[in-house]
Design brief:
It is built from eleven helices and 24 strands. The N terminus is likely disordered.
Length: about 500
């Protein structure tokens, strides 16, 4: 491997520490923000960006406007729902100040107009008080099965997919990308985040093409053309693979194979982890002796589809953060050498609907950086949060009751939020789970049998179920179907 100094390295990793700030900031002095501001001010010809939105970052917006004034071509796309609304309050004013910023509103309107209702068929016991689409889960624990039904508390309505990218391309030669939103809590340094800056025209071309699919051709979400996987080896030996959502299926084709091939360790720092197949892969890795650790955001820990309690039930240590800011990274380090980073939460929507980007990077230098950052944050979170979870807007979560932010998205902040009162209410419960022995008579397990060259999964209640010997047992229908067995 060719060794080079940091001064001429083509890839840099910036890791935001949520312990360093008591509240979001409108000043762009955090390292991952300062490098973005520096690149905007240094751009000579073009700046392309795709970001979720803008809030409370006037220096960045001023710099983009100044770039336009000095003749730089600035193009951008931001999210908008089917009503034309963006989550971040300053997005509309930024669009008014910059001449070439477009949205995915038309794509979302079309999606909502043709959306089918979410399936509500109950194929397993529905948890009480959870009214959303039901997800039936079964995980193999060897001689036992871990079973659960997950659902949102309220029914879900289609509102279109989101443009969830966070990237800039400068002069067709450099890329700033990662998990960080252009906001007072993101680039402002309050949340735990990760940014990669890559100085390479080949990588920049990948991101320019992704931008132009949306900006030039109006193709968002599922309408985009497949592009990946895209591979590049930098002169310093760093190997990069890029996949874009949804066209390149980053979880299924990128992240899951890494987890399935892990032999030593997996350290995950993630905002949302609700993907059922990734959960199965992590449990399987744990069972074969891989050390798996997960740092999860406290707000995400209250989601009806969160998988962290199932991971814990399988023996995997999961800590739910107790800072004021959020665990907003979407990252992992596999076997101490392969870094996963990007904008995509580990969810079905992150992979299958939203506009996202994911990088898989092999670099010993960046791996060491991430490992040190992860370990420091892991050690900082109290071991009590290896069980249960803190209220994301309560006195257990650092400065959450004094930061001026609605940390749990209930439209109440600080003293107005019941969690910050003298007598905070208990947190809402999550869907229950249970562990059953893998044996006939439980009434929950599928028998996989091969007959006449066909693979069949017999369910309890089928006339042949009790008298048939299983070639394989399955804890859930989806597990059987992935193995090629069809339910009968």
């Amino acid at each position: 491997m060719l060794l080079v100094s940091l001064a001429v390295a083509q890839i840099h990793l910036f890791l935001a520490d949520p312990r360093e700030r008591p509240a979001p900031s409108t000043t762009c002095d955090a390292p991952h923000c300062a490098v973005l501001l520096e690149r905007i001010r240094a751009a000579r010809h073009t700046i392309d960006f795709a970001v979720y939105g803008f809030r409370g970052q006037p220096e960045i917006v001023d710099a983009l406007e100044a770039a336009v004034a000095r003749g730089v071509r600035v193009r951008g796309v931001v999210d908008a729902d089917a009503r034309g609304v963006n989550y971040y309050a300053d997005t509309a004013s930024v669009r008014a100040r910059l001449p070439d910023v477009r949205t995915d509103e038309a794509a979302d309107r079309a999606s909502v107009a043709t959306a089918r209702p979410f399936r509500t068929r109950d194929a397993c016991p529905r948890p009480e008080g959870f009214r959303g689409p039901l997800q039936c889960l079964g995980y193999d624990l060897g001689d036992r099965c871990l079973l659960a039904g997950h659902a949102s508390r309220e029914p879900l309505e289609a509102d279109g997919d989101i443009l969830h990218h966070k990237f800039f391309v400068f002069d067709g030669r450099a890329v700033w990308t990662g998990s960080t939103n252009v906001s007072d809590s993101g680039t402002g340094g309050y949340n735990a985040n990760l940014v990669l800056v890559v100085d390479d025209p080949v990588v920049a071309a990948w991101y320019t093409h992704e931008l132009e699919q949306m900006f030039v051709h109006g193709r968002f979400h599922g309408a985009k053309e497949a592009t990946g996987p895209l591979h590049r080896t930098l002169p310093d030996g760093t190997r990069i693979t890029a996949r874009f959502s949804p066209q390149d299926r980053p979880l299924t084709r990128g992240v899951r194979p890494l987890i399935q091939g892990a032999r030593e360790s997996i350290d995950i720092a993630v905002f949302f982890l609700t993907h059922k197949h990734v959960t199965a892969d992590l449990i399987a890795a744990h069972r074969r002796g891989v050390r798996v650790r997960v740092l999860l955001d406290a707000t995400a820990g209250g989601n009806g589809y969160t998988k962290h309690e199932l991971l814990r039930a399988a023996g995997i240590p999961v800590k739910v953060e107790d800072w004021g800011g959020k665990m907003h990274a979407k990252a992992a380090l596999v076997d101490g050498r392969v870094l996963v980073a990007g904008s995509m939460n580990w969810t079905s929507a992150g992979e299958g609907g939203n506009d996202e980007n994911t990088l898989i990077v092999q670099s010993p230098r960046l791996a060491r950086q991430y490992a040190a950052w992860f370990q420091a944050l892991w050690d900082d979170v109290d071991d009590r949060w290896l069980a249960g979870r803190p209220d994301p807007e309560g006195p257990e979560s650092g400065s959450a009751c004094t930061d001026g932010v609605d940390d749990d998205f209930d439209h109440l902040a600080d003293a107005e939020d019941p969690g910050c009162s003298a007598s905070p209410p208990p947190l809402p419960s999550l869907p229950p789970w249970r562990i059953v022995r893998r044996e006939d008579g439980e009434g929950v397990l599928l028998k996989g049998v091969e007959r006449d060259g066909r693979r069949i999964a017999l369910a309890p209640g089928h006339p042949d179920y009790a008298g048939t010997r299983a070639d394989r047992w399955f804890c859930s229908r989806w597990e059987a179907e992935e193995a090629g067995y069809r339910r009968r």
